[in-house]
Amino acid sequence: SSVNIALYTNGIGLTKLSKTEQGVLVKSLNRIRVSMDASNADDWAFYKGRDAKLFQQIWIALSNLKTLRDQLGTEVKLGAGCLVSSSCEDRKIMDFIDIASQFGLDFCDVKYLFESDGTKSAYRASSSNFIEIVDEIMQAKETKKYGDMHIGLDDNFVIDWYASKMGLENYDIIAARRCWMARVGRKVTIGPYGGIYPCSDAANPGVLKVLNAEPRMAVITNFENEQVIQNQFSAFWQRSRSKRDSFDPPTHNYCVPSNSG
Questions:
Q1: Is 6 helix (H, G, I), strand (E, B) or coil?
Q2: What does the DSSP assignment read for 184-217?
Q3: 21-39: pLDDT as tens digits
Q4: Under 8 Å CB-to-CB from 97, ≥6 apart: which residues?
Q5: Residue 254 CB: number of other CB atoms within 10 A?
Q6: Distances from the Cα of 134 to the Cαs of 6, 10, 106, 139, 188, in angstroms?
Q7: Which helix (H) or strand (E) holds 8?
Q8: Residue 55's CB: how many other CB atoms inside 10 A?
Q9: Pairwise CA distance, residues 102 & 145, whole Å
Q10: CA 118, 50, 6, 76 torsion: positive or negative?
Q11: Mean pLDDT, consecutive 10-residue segments, the chain of 261 residues?
């Protein structure tokens, strides 16, 4: 069976690539997703602790990748993600989706903010304002307001929205209890040091700090020998298929949305 390879990045490195290097990405990858997490430069700079000028440069880098992809005729999907936080909430969520559409991206996703050390103020999905935003997003999806761009919502947001529509106060029966990506076993992430994780967000340093590296499923130890890498990954994959439900903590829901396409 074929293997899809995706690059998940904060996008800063994309701004430094030559056209040749950009070409390697669009020809080699199936998916490129940038964690933007804001709808304007000031909020982005505050949240990321980076120079605000990079915000626009990253969007331009994505646009350049799209142009190059179209020229080369490759099928790599380009998208961006946004964490709902104090830097991106209420109308700013729609602003983020608008920008993603304006730059012609194939997909975007909206997720919960995972607080690893209590220093970031999470925005609660129970807010009536957010329910209204989800209403607007659902309507936009139905009317194809953003054309073919796919909008993925964190499973928890969708659950809260449906529960609100149905008037449910206790809706544990429809709440996700385990990491969707790990349970289904369809995606894994290889981190910069060879660690294999059930999803891209499980490899997040903040998550690793909280969960004491529990999400790590395996480690690739030799990058110099292609056959060794293949053997190590194959052995891991066989283990993961038979024991995948034990790899994620029971309450770990922080992952790329299962409806992200």
A1: strand
A2: HT---EE-TTSEEESSGGGG-HHHHHHHTTTT--
A3: 999 999 999 999 999 988 9
A4: 108, 110, 137, 140, 146, 151
A5: 23
A6: 27, 25, 20, 8, 28
A7: strand 6-9
A8: 22
A9: 12
A10: positive
A11: 79 95 94 92 89 96 96 95 76 92 93 54 50 86 92 75 71 45 52 64 56 62 79 76 49 39 39
d(CA 191, CA 198): 11
Burial annotation 89-118 (CB, 10 A radius, 16+ → b, else e): beebbebbbebbbebebbbbbbbbbbebee
* Measured CA angle at 252 (ends 163, 149), to 5 deg: 60
Encoded tokens for 241: 């298929």
14 vs 23, 34, 161, CA distance in Å? 12, 9, 35
pLDDT at 58: 97
> Comparing C-alpha atoms, which of 120, 115, 123, 124 is closest to residue 209?
115
**Nearest residue to 190 via CA among 212, 161, 155, 221:** 221
pLDDT digits (tens, 9 = 90+) for 173-190: 444 433 433 444 445 677
Task: State the pLDDT at residue 56.
Answer: 96
Paired tokens of 94: 């729609």
How much is the pTM?
A: 0.70
Residue type, 95: D
Judged on CB neighbours under 10 Å (0-12, 13-18, 19+), 236 is middle
Amino acid at 65: L
Structure tokens at 220: 């690739």
Burial class (CB in 10 A: 0-12, 13-18, 19+), 3: exposed
**Residue for token pair 């012609």:** 104
